């Protein structure tokens, strides 16, 4: 039971779209990530996913609409909903999601991170 300083942890993240584990709660990971540019359209068939914006602006694109998240706003994306995160400028994000969640969902490509690092 140690406190976690997110600013210090974010300094350890160099690459975009590579979430890092900073904690665990029940069957979920708490992760930090930095995003910039477009990600990939994908679906998480079995997991809900929460994006909380710490710094910057994140757009979550859905088929038919976009949701813009500013600092200190979050969204929970239910399982089965296709989406694509996009950040025009660097954005810092906290994610809370099931331990089974693959960052690219049903897609595997160069942005897929299977072995998550704990920082």
Please name the defining characteristics of this protein.
8 strands; Jelly Rolls; 119 residues; 8-stranded mixed sheet; mainly beta; 4% helix; globular; single chain
Task: Explain this structure.
- This protein is mostly beta strands.
- It has one domain (6-97): Jelly Rolls (Sandwich).
- The protein is 4% helix and 46% strand.
- It contains 1 helix and 8 strands, in the order αββββββββ.
- Strands 1, 2, 3, 4, 5, 6, 7 and 8 form an 8-stranded mixed beta sheet that branches.
- It starts with 5 loop residues before the first helix and ends with a strand.
- The mean pLDDT is 95.
Summarize the structure in short:
The protein contains 1 helix and 8 strands, in the order H-E-E-E-E-E-E-E-E.
pLDDT averaged over residues: 95
Basic shape: globular
The N- to C-terminal Cα distance equals: 15 Å
- Helical content (DSSP H or I, runs of 4+): under 10%
- Number of separate structural domains: 1
Q: What is the CATH level 1 assignment?
A: Mainly Beta
Structural category:
mainly beta
The amount of beta strand, in percent, is over 45%
Q: For the CA atoms, what is the radius of gyration?
A: 13 Å
Layout of strands and helices, then pairs:
Blueprint: H1 6-10, E1 20-25, E2 28-38, E3 49-55, E4 58-62, E5 65-69, E6 74-77, E7 84-98, E8 117-118
Parallel strand pairs: 1-8
Antiparallel strand pairs: 1-2, 2-7, 3-6, 3-7, 4-5, 4-7
């Amino acid at each position: 039971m140690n406190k976690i300083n997110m600013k210090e942890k974010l300094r350890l993240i160099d690459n975009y779209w590579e979430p890092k584990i900073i904690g665990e709660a029940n069957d979920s990971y708490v992760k930090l990530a930095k995003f910039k540019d477009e990600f990939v359209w994908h679906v998480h068939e079995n997991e809900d996913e929460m994006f909380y914006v710490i710094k910057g602006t994140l757009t979550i694109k859905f088929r038919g609409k976009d949701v813009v998240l500013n600092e200190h706003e979050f969204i929970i994306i239910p399982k089965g909903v296709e989406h694509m995160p996009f950040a025009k400028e660097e954005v810092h994000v906290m994610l809370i999601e099931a331990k089974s969640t693959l960052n690219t969902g049903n897609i595997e490509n160069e942005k897929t991170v299977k072995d998550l690092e704990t920082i």
